[in-house]
Amino acid sequence: MDDFLDVDGLKASFRDVLSVEASVDTVLAHFDHARGMARPLWDTIVGLGWTALSVPEAHGGLGLGIDALVALYEEAGRAVAPVPLLSTMLAADAIARGASETQQANWLPMIVAGAVVAIDPPAPLQPPTLTIAPTVDGWHLSGTTRMLDAADADRLLHLAVAPDGSLRRVLLSPEQVEGLPLWDHGHTLSDIVYRDRPISAEAVFGTNGKVEEALAIHASLALAAEAVGGSQALLPLTIDYLKTRQQFGKPIGSFQALKHRVADHQTRLEGDRLLLASAAALAAADDRLAPSEASAAKALACANYAELARDAIQLHGGIGFTAEQACHLFLKRARLIELLFGDRSLHLARAASALDLEIAA
């Protein structure tokens, strides 16, 4: 973690922008009429230099660490921002960690300038489904992969297994990728099939278990942060409604049963926020417990966010089921990120691995 970085100030600056550019009304309108990313919002994010946050300074970035990215992911989650931040920033991380200097010089400035990159999940979170075989003058790529945000992407960063069992990352331009609309209209899902597609050597770089684990930590922290941010927006929204909705001559928020439900959600949210901060600190320090702590944060924060989103609709009564009210935005995003890059059982199993580390220490 950068001791000189004002994370709270950075987070406040993100929030100030997103509260205007990704206001509730703006996001509701996008969900109502569009599928996939909100291009105007993405252009604003690029113009403010947010896509340069973690890119090395040598390639036009700011060179900030995971703590800055977590702050950004949290505020994007608060706004339910319909932009491919995670996929693009994770791809930048993969390139910075594994690609050659020449490849980094060619690709990272492209991301800083606003190119959207979809990425296959890190190997610890999902085994690769593509294979890559060497040829006389390059490689051949085969198999089927399912990618988030590929329909909006300028580049696709795949993960493939070579005949000797080693892992390769492959950066390609998409060819007529169609996206299946999701319940969360800010993203799309695409099935991409390759049959011995020729790949130039310049588009391929090696990766390994250590790099893929670092990417898994990044993805887990990002989704945990998005869940915490979404929860921090949705819970006050629900509490405000409970204070104004009247039944039997008094606000429904005065009823003890509803107070208890809100208190339970607040307690879980505080726990999620503290666990996220702990996991981010471990990741910044490259601590051996970082993988398990990040997975614990992802599993718990995403599950609690989904539960809060479901409960918020109930607590809002009939209006909570309408498209004009914001609750459905949070529920759709919560359900998506709960399953994205590994479900709860996978991340709980990764979190449990810390027990063996603690016993052996």
UniProtKB/TrEMBL annotation:
Signal peptide: none annotated. Pfam families: Acyl-CoA_dh_1, Acyl-CoA_dh_N. InterPro entries: AcylCo_DH-like_C (IPR036250), AcylCo_DH/oxidase_C (IPR009075), AcylCoA_DH/ox_N (IPR013786), AcylCoA_DH/ox_N_sf (IPR037069), AcylCoA_DH/oxidase_NM_dom_sf (IPR009100). GO terms for molecular function: acyl-CoA dehydrogenase activity; flavin adenine dinucleotide binding. Residues 20-114 form the Acyl-CoA dehydrogenase/oxidase N-terminal domain. Gene3D superfamilies: Acyl-CoA dehydrogenase/oxidase, N-terminal domain, Butyryl-CoA Dehydrogenase, subunit A, domain 3. Residues 221-352 form the Acyl-CoA dehydrogenase/oxidase C-terminal domain. Its cofactor is FAD. Keywords: FAD, Flavoprotein, Oxidoreductase. Belongs to the acyl-CoA dehydrogenase family. PANTHER family: ACYL-COA DEHYDROGENASE, ACYL-COA DEHYDROGENASE FADE28. This is Alkylation response protein AidB-like acyl-CoA dehydrogenase. It comes from Sphingomonas yantingensis. The lineage of its organism: Bacteria, Pseudomonadati, Pseudomonadota, Alphaproteobacteria, Sphingomonadales.
